[in-house]
Amino acid sequence: MTIQTLPSGVMSTLQPTDHPFLNGPFRPMFNEYIADTDSLRVIGEIPRDLDGIFIRNTHNQIHQPLGMFHPFDGDGMLHAVHFHDGRATYRNRFVQTTGFLAEQAARRSLWAGLLEPEKASRRGSGAMGAMKDNAGTDIICHAGLLLATMSQGSEPWRLDPITLDTLGPDTNWARKIPDGISSHYKVDPETGEMMFFNYPEHWPYMHYGVIDRNNRLVHYVPVELPGARWPHDLGITRNYSILHDTPHFFDPELLKRGQHKMTFHPEMPARFGVIPRHGDGSQVRWFEAKACHILHLANCYEDGDEIVMDGCIMPEPKLHPVGAADGKDIYARIKARLDKHNNPTMMHRWRFNLRTGATTEQYLDDEITEFPVVSNDYVGRPYRYSYNVLYQPGEWLFRGLKRFDLHSGAVQRYEYGPGRYGSEPQVARRLGARDEDDGYVTVFVTDMNQDRSECLVLDARDISRGPLATIVLPERIPVGTHACWVEGDRIPGEHRDPAAWA
Ligand SMILES: [Fe+2]
Hints:
The protein is mostly beta strands. The chain has a single domain, classed as TolB, C-terminal domain (Neuraminidase). 5% of the residues lie in helices and 38% in strands. The chain is built from three helices and 34 strands. The strands form eight sheets. Strands 1-2-6-5-4-34 form a six-stranded antiparallel sheet, with no helix packed on it. Strands 3, 29, 30, 31, 32 and 33 form a six-stranded antiparallel sheet that branches. A four-stranded antiparallel sheet has the order 7-8-9-10, with no helix packed on it. Strand 13 (207-211) and strand 14 form a beta hairpin. The protein starts with a strand and ends in a 15-residue tail after the last strand. Fe (ii) ion (FE2) is lined by residues 183-184, 232, 295-296, 482. The site of fe (ii) ion has 6 residues, from strand 21.
């Protein structure tokens, strides 16, 4: 196959700008490609037992913004590499949300972004009340189809995992959930169930639900919180889900007036609600822990009487206000707000004792990392390895990966080198794998030195060796974050051979 550019004709009206999140590693792209390894350069050798699809979502701005641009405002674009039998096919496609199609038809921006929602020319959906449904943040596969979302701001957009064609909002259950959905669903590898939550700004402030392996909504219950909250993730174990109520939320008085000012309350505890997988709100057991905020969990599992929850703790969320100034200063403030070195996060473990009601917690590391990922086959189960991203100081860019062996305490790291920036990785166990780390780690890297992008395949047992294979993409793609791995035998749905995860 030669490199094909799809005749999608995406129209961009972006004007030259010095905005840091529209230039350099963040420069958006407008071509949509299909290309395989007959035409793409491969450095090294793609393992023949790497079988499945690595997919990353990316905010990719198309039109001249109506106001100040925030890097989460761009339309969703998926980048995917489909591995099979030692070969790979790359595709990238926009998530064709209603907002995307309306702005393509209008040939301009119709929605403003996170920073100046009052400049929107029409009503929008979303956590901020006026955002375009860009579906550019999260990506996961369930029941044989992709789900792309923007947390609490998006329909659950379904896409074909191979072609990346947008199929539309989920037709089975989206209409039954009026308060929307969060990002970061969790799929049980054994049952194929997908657990989710939402967090509306009105009573009861949270719902929790389960969608079965056949994509039927089988459980949806209210979970009453003390007020509007801003959770980002949930955890699952074999029998429970863990819901988050952290003291980092919008000022309730300002919220009554429609204003969203995030406030951290260090005097309040964080609360974590352990709910039986199919339990109702009255069965939630709340555990208190020290004040913090959490974006992303690594994994959760049951250990005797205890629920173990590992993730990246933000012990003291510091807010760099944005939105009140014009010109370059605002860009610097957006960067400062996103710079993890101003707002450190590191691996942390909470234990919730179901017998005593006690919480214990401990730091697992003191280095700044985030976007922890584990093998799909170990989600909700005792596990050993987490692969996290390392940050470039002063930037919202990922300079490398850190592998945690949570049994031995050993760590490995792999850094991409100067001018090279990665994304959230994924763990791809090889065909016939027996051990948790028997397989590969995949990640996209944007190389500013060579003006190109690559998909790297690393040995999950020894990431420090560097890539086993580097697939050079047809065009430099902008950096992005959340990704997923779809095992080849999950493409038809959540009906895997038990041998796949046993
Ligand atoms: Fe996230």
